Amino acid sequence: MLRAMLGPGADEAIRELRERGIDPAAMSGLPTDPAALQQAFTQMQSMLAASGDEPVNWQMAHDLARQQASSEGDPSLTPAQTRQVLEALTLAELWLDAATELPPASGSPRAWSRAEWVEATLPTWRTLTEPVASSLSNALVGTLGDAMGEGFGTDLEGELPGGIDATQLLRRLGSAVFGLQVGQAAGTLARDVFGTTDIGLPLLASPTPALVASNVDAFAAGLDAPVDEVRLFLALREAAATRLFTHVPWLRAHLLATVEAYARGITIDADQLEEAVRSIDPTDAAALQQALSGGVFAPHTTPQQKAALERLETALALVEGWVDEVAAAAAMPHLPHTVALREMIRRRRAAGGPAEQTFANLVGLELRPRRLRDAAALWSQIARDNGTQARDAVWDHPDLLPTAEDLDDPAGYSTRRAAAVDEAAEVDRALAEILGEDPDAAAGA
Fold first, then answer.
1. Model pTM?
2. pLDDT, tens digit, for every residue of 143-176?
3. How far is CA 390 from CA 377, 394, 417, in A?
4. Burial class (CB in 10 A: 0-12, 13-18, 19+), 151
5. 35, 114, 244, 309: which has the fewest C-beta neighbours closer than 10 Å?
6. H or E segment at 87?
């Protein structure tokens, strides 16, 4: 079951469990031998003791994330690395002043190790993952619980042999599994990200520009461009995104609320899961694994979720497209490899990576801007038509945000926006007439 739920990361998660004194193999097969059965119950009790009552075991997630982050080495930053990062972020802010109306963020720039990135961002991963963890935990209790109770000759409300509560066991098993999965993905991301905004979502409650020095250096090592130029380009993207999330106060809450709305609606097909469990011999581990690997944990998307997903994908594309456009505009006069670096980052974001795929499996969506190029073209069109001030003013209110239709036809955005303004003015005039006010004054207001 663990292998089915964790996929490619199962071996690492199972190894972590064994290091904590929990051997999943001892819990499988429901042995009839009294000594072996007692061992299985002992392992179950260890699992109960190791997992808390939260949907995700965050202590386990934290420990594994730190372990994964340092698996390829994570030495403390040297004074030279820290200075290079801080100088790059400071210079990036100066260049951005010529490319956007949004002022710098108030937070001081940071140079981080991978472990420091984990510590700073885990609270946001909690916000992202707990809703779906709760939903899947409830589904597991509602379906596997009955089957487990029957297998032990009891019901879900009673205790299993050895004084183990079946409901508690399943919930804490789920808590441990999600803790392992979140920890593994966060730790893997820590070896790959450049800063706090790479995935399009602000991972800090108080936006602060930061770069993970070792990841920047590793990325630059495989490129033809000088490392200083690569660092500056990445600093421009990080600083631009931080400005956006700092001075558009509703944006972070909007994005995270959309993710939560999508995640809270995630369910699994209880009938399909129950049929898979009931149709096999619970002592046949191979058959159980095959049944659980057959898509029974696949989420089923509702119309409401599809709408939330479309809103999220559009918003992520708009954020990424704005950052892409502004950072490139700021870099072009100074960095010779701007065009090549911009294209490389675009392809990197479009492709994603194994850790992002893990979160896609966990949260039920991919945090990738599928329409990055369309969004960048839209922001560029707005700036050409009306200037950078008008482009940045679009972020003044969520109602002003471009839609998927605007991404389809960037050239027609200004016309549609003007028509929407005229329509709103007509509504204001009509209301003014009803209220006995001056229609022209109301429309002008």
1. 0.78
2. 665 555 554 444 444 455 555 566 777 777 778 7
3. 15, 7, 12
4. middle
5. 35
6. helix 79-96
